[in-house]
Design brief:
mainly alpha, three-stranded antiparallel beta sheet, 46% helix, 6% strand
Amino acid sequence: MPTFTPARNCAAESPCPPATYTAAVERYLTGAGIAKSSARIYRISLTTWGWMLTGEAAPTGPARRGAKPPLFPVAAIDDPVLPEVLAELAAARADAMDADTVNRELSIARKAIGWWQRQGWIEGDPTIGIERRPAPPDRTKALAENQIAALWRLDVGLREKTQWKMLYESAARADEVLCLNVEDLYPQDKRGRITAKGGATEWIHWQSGTAQLLPRLIARRTRGPLFLTDRKAPAGTPTLDVCPETGRARLSYRRAEEIFEENTRLLANPLASPDDIEDLDGWTLHRLRHSALTHDAEDGTSTPMLLARSRHASVRSLERYARPGVDSVARHVAERDPAARRRT
């Protein structure tokens, strides 16, 4: 474990460094203008790096939930032995996690470190030398339409039904939808106002499936988070994340992802035995957005409309979503089979 360097002289620097790394993370999230819809993911990633910055492997799986991050001064990031230790930990984590997750966490850590350097709280960057992992494209991320249909048949609660329908019908990002408040909704227009990546205020639109479920989910509430936990919010929960009418907290991205993953394990592994299913992975919430955009592209939706619906800034960013799925390609080939046309 790296040794800690002495605390900095606050009189010589402004602003004074926060007392702990955790406090530095919060200062970064508010001071760097990170959008509310992105702050949850940033906080989770930076908490993961918090363990590694103290020379410990970050907990994974069930052990990660509820684990308290280590407390250490942000100045410890300048420890000269840290880069070598960190490189080994990052390599071990990269071997155990998918490349997209590892690369995203590294990118977030470097952004935060750069901001702390500009504040004068630290001098070095211990992540220098850690390379991004190549992420080969996954051509199977879009779910087939029969898989989407099977998802709607799952016996789950109203909250999950509404959330999953909204994610698929709107093609919105999961963190954007989870940040929705009741007062952000315009049910008569089947749309809602979200805070998108970069902090811009934008609209998402849904269809009849979501529209039919929303009134039951909202009940008589007029304000507060749309998607709530089942229990009262614990003490210290930010006011914006507590329903003023029920006292329950906003559903977190991590918990929403866990629930979706657990409920889709059988759908993702149809040939698995019941004894093995707990050790296998289900689907991720992001696949609902990916699937919606892919299905739109397969149905002939124009590129300008796909850009508007996905809220991507460039066609290049849209390319990985607008790739027809295996069922669509199979249907295309079958429809152009000369023998099939002769039989018809």
